[in-house]
Write a structure and sequence with these properties.
Layout lengths: L4 H4 L5 E5 L3 E7 L7 H22 L1 E7 L2 H22 L5 E6 L2 E5 L3 H15 L7 E7 L2 E6 L1 H25 L6 E4 L4 E7 L4 H9 L4 E5 L6 H6 L6 E6 L5 E5 L4 E2 L3 E9 L5 E7 L1 H13 L5 E5 L2 E4 L11 E4 L5 H15 L5 E8 L6
Parallel strand pairs: 1-18, 11-17
Antiparallel strand pairs: 1-2, 2-14, 3-9, 3-19, 4-5, 5-7, 6-7, 8-9, 10-13, 10-16, 11-12, 14-15, 15-18, 16-17
């Protein structure tokens, strides 16, 4: 697994851990401790090994393209949300906040308010080149903010690396182990599968996007009663990811995969138990704060493809936008859950641009 540049910085997330209750702190574990040099060397070795296998076994080559347009839209939307939160929390008067032409425009009459916004955004991007913002003074209080070209390139690289990690995990979960997944240019990913002569079986794995949702648990009746009778309107019974026990949950999601900006496996600080760590974007942070403020004392189910991963009780409002969950995971299970959640949160989608069946080389 790989670690994107933004996660290799100082991004050890300390947040409320969603275990049996949302109370403890936890520290996220980077997906791998490899720097770019060792990672490139490892990939080169894997690629050479897979190339030798393709010579003797034949197989399939598949190329996907990441959605760079969806990424840009997601980045600018998050920037707008960050600008709103910064100005709102700083009690800075503003108007005409809007997304335009790949950036964010806003009018701030007070010069001190404009400086305050610029400093706050610069501080948030410190050590994270992928978050660098260009701030342009348009005169008469007008300010334009947009990701720098270097930041956009870094974000695209992050998306490719995140997509590779997701592809590797989903192939592994599907029993496909002999495979090479590497970048192919700036926005493409090449998958090579020795011995696999039906690439459609593999592409079918990625044809459906993972569904991630966060839903409140209904305590008006037991899930067993709802399972054997008629559940309350607006609810349904879902089974647990590991324990297979029934849960009565709301059909409507309080948050979903589009609200998540980051996911990774980690360890709980106190117990060292494996956990899955999530960070929400600006919109998701506000939604999470609102839901948890309104629902203290209620269980909150994290649902992955209609299976309940965990249903911790909300002990206090969560306003920081980061959580960790535990479901008696092994480290591998925590990694799988985190990567599946990340798959459901990736901006845009993967587009299949090429697939070929490669015949084994003929012997002389």
């Amino acid at each position: 697994m790989t670690t994107p540049p933004r996660d290799r910085a100082t991004r050890l997330i300390v947040a409320l851990a969603m275990t049996s209750a949302i109370t403890a702190t936890a520290i996220a574990l980077p997906r791998a401790a490899l720097a770019d040099g060792p990672l490139d060397k490892m990939r080169a070795k894997v690629t050479a090994f897979i190339g030798d296998k393709m010579q003797t076994l034949g197989g399939s080559r598949i190329v996907y393209q990441v959605d760079s347009s969806g990424l840009r839209e997601s980045v600018v939307t998050d920037l707008r949300d960050d600008v709103y939160k910064t100005l709102h929390d700083g009690h800075v008067a503003f108007s005409n906040l809007a997304i335009r032409d790949g950036g964010v425009d806003v009018k701030i009459a007070d010069a001190k308010g404009r400086d305050q916004l610029a400093r706050k955004l610069a501080s948030a991007a410190d050590g994270l080149p992928s978050h660098a913002i260009a701030v342009t003074d348009g005169g008469d209080g007008a300010v334009r903010l947009a990701p720098t070209d270097a930041a956009s390139a870094a974000r695209l690289n992050d998306l490719v690396e995140d997509s590779i990690a997701m592809i590797e995990q989903r192939l592994k979960d599907s029993g496909v182990k002999l495979v090479s997944v590497v970048p192919d240019g700036t926005d493409r990913i090449r998958i090579v599968l020795p011995g696999v002569t039906d690439p459609e079986r593999v592409t079918a794995i990625f044809a459906r996007k993972v569904k991630v949702s966060f839903r409140l648990v209904d305590a008006s009746m037991s899930p067993e009663q709802a399972q054997s009778g008629t559940p309350p309107e607006g609810t349904e019974v879902l089974l647990g990811f590991k324990d297979k026990r029934p849960y009565l949950v709301a059909k409507d999601s309080a948050l979903d995969g589009d609200d998540i900006s980051y996911a990774a496996p980690g360890f709980a600080a106190g117990t060292k138990d494996p956990v899955a760590s999530f960070r929400f974007n600006g919109r998701g942070t506000r939604r999470l704060a609102h839901v948890t403020e309104e629902s203290v004392g209620r269980p909150f189910a994290i649902v992955l493809d209609d299976k309940v991963i965990s249903a911790p009780v909300i002990r206090e409002p969560i306003t920081g936008g980061s959580v960790q969950i535990s479901g008696n995971f092994t480290l591998e299970e925590a990694n799988s859950v985190a990567m599946l959640v990340r798959a459901g949160a990736l901006p845009g989608h993967l587009t299949l641009v090429d697939q070929q069946v490669i015949q084994p080389a003929t012997k002389p």
